Amino acid sequence: MLVEAGLLSPRIDWAEMPRYLTSKDLPSGRTGIEGLMELLAGSCVTLGSTMSAPRQYWSPWDHVAECDGWDGDAMAERLRRTVDHCVASWASTGDRTLATLSGGLDSSVVVAGLARAKHDFQCATLVAGDRLGDEREYARAMAAHAGAELHEAHYDHDDVDLALSVARHFPKPIGTLHETAFHAAIMRRTRALGAAAVFTGNGGDSIFYNSSSVRPLFDYLRSRGPAFQAITVFHNICEVTRSGRTAALREVVRSIPAMRRPYVWRQNFGLLTDDLVTQMSSRPPSHPWLDVQPLGRPGKVGHVSHLLKVQNHLEGYLRPYDMPMINPLMSQPVVELALGIPTWRMIEGGRDRAVVRKAYAQAIPPIVRDRRRKGSPSGFAMDVLLRNAPEVRERLMDGELARRHLVDAEKVAAVIPQAPSSGHMYVRFLILLDMEAWISHWRALGG
């Protein structure tokens, strides 16, 4: 809007690109456009004859509570009521809604809330070509349980353009290229339906601390001491992580030194030049919420880091289509309530997100509520790279990031033949491709 109004001539801030290459999911006040700042969640400025420096007025640590007098049933009921009220409040701001329904727990919670509010809504689920990307069985069960109509669509390769960034309308390169196919498919259904907004379950994994970590055990020991119940917490961790007791115990022992140190954001150095890796290793990124972390609450520090990771992926993704995307699970009352739930309570019974599963035990069918594995469009994402292999190679090896010695073209050449099948490297490729497209977009607009 600032650019279109002639108030900003955008120039890429190349000094910030290394941070986005290594820590794109960590919110920062500095954007990728020179002179343009972002006001971070929980902070404010005072406007007068001049603008004050940003200051924090909300902190997650103000809502992390001890668990004295814990009542699991009461907390589950309170959580359900809070989520339902937030979903209903958001729904009341518009007319018909399209709810994305992946078949997972979080999107099903939102659909259950829309059904309870008796809102006018329909559901949509997207299907990738392989078994992992086909969750229609779960989506159909949830839609039927909620009494909602379900629309099924497929990811379409025609919706992916390697020159078009998912984040092209953001002043920060935070996209993953194949997501354009999801947005295009959802918008086709939204327009056909005449919906006023798209609702998602985004943020649920972060809010309800869906983590495969031993951190909850350390939180329990810090709060209760070496009580017999710690064995139950340990067994729950084994179930959640699908680990044997010996392997889990080794991880606990290995993690002891790290649990005594402040949490440090993990940077991604994949495919970067050695010089850039050395430079960024010497200055780990941070955030105001991590600068004041309590050393005795490693699980809650992990919980807060999850809240940070999701923030860049919540707001404005459908803005090019003039369509609001609402993520009701990230509403402030839900966030504050979830922060007060002990991390070891989140894995009771050996299930991740245990409290919300209990809260919606009757509102979600068992096939969805009790599932342990989640689908993914990763097969489609990998196929994007395979189908466009020559262009992928050209854009990454001869692109702006390589020319500026940020991405190592030789490392790209060594990995690119097997990238679609080598762990999560395919995600790294899609992120770098989107950044190249983002750079081209903003350079065309002003520099």
In a nutshell, what does this entry contain?
It is built from 20 helices and seven strands. It has 447 residues and is mainly alpha-helical.
Instruction: Give the mean pLDDT.
Output: 93
Helix share bin: 40-55%
Q: Give the ordered list of helices and strands.
A: HEEHEHEHEHEHHHHHHHEHHHHHHHH
Taken from the alpha-carbon principal axes, the silhouette is globular
Structural class of the secondary structure composition?
Answer: mainly alpha
Total number of helical segments? 20
Distance between the termini: 17 Å
* Physical arrangement of strands within the biggest beta sheet: 5-4-3-6-7
Largest sheet: 5 strands, parallel
Rounded to an integer in angstroms, the radius of gyration calculated over CA atoms is 22 Å
Quote the beta fraction: 5-15%
- Oligomer type: single chain
Highlighted features:
mainly alpha, 45% helix, 447 residues, five-stranded parallel sheet, two-stranded antiparallel sheet
Q: How would you portray this structure in words?
A:
The chain has 447 residues and is mainly α. The protein has 20 helices and seven strands. Strands 5-4-3-6-7 form a five-stranded parallel β-sheet, sandwiched between helices. A two-stranded antiparallel ribbon has the order 1-2. Strand 3, helix 3 and strand 4 form a beta-alpha-beta unit. Helix 7 runs antiparallel to helix 8 and helix 7 packs across helix 12.
